[in-house]
Amino acid sequence: MPRDANERCMLAVDLIYKANEQGISNERIWIDPIVTPISGEINQVKACFEFMSMLQEIAPGCKSIVGLSNISNGTPDNLRPYLNRTNLIMLMKYGLHAAIVDAFDTELIDIARGRRGELVSMVHKMMDGEIPDIASLNSEDLKYYKTVRVLKGESLYSHSWLEV
Hints:
By secondary structure, the chain is mainly alpha-helical. Helix content is 48%, strand content 6%.
């Protein structure tokens, strides 16, 4: 398991170099940035986002894929959708190409198909440092706001982060 984004980059570059030597072009290579459970260690979650932000620079043309629900592994069932959906939105900012997802989560599918532009915009703005007017958020958007803060490491993960 890579310790940080730099180790992820070194592994990816090594893998791509060896694949290129065998005649495999970057456009045929899929990279998994390794999504880890939020309940484990926040630094691994942050390293995944950091790696994704650098992927096209270090591996032009390569595609990215994740096991999306890894982020919520070990969390209560009622919280998993918020972690999975928010994680998807955050990874989309960095050009995620594909994800293994819960096909029965219709909200997640709507996000993936571009039907929740306002939510995606809010999350991406938060990733850029903008803080929305919390008083103006409806109860559902407030849950995403809180989840972004947890995934960015700005708020501690606990099974009650949506209630705090």
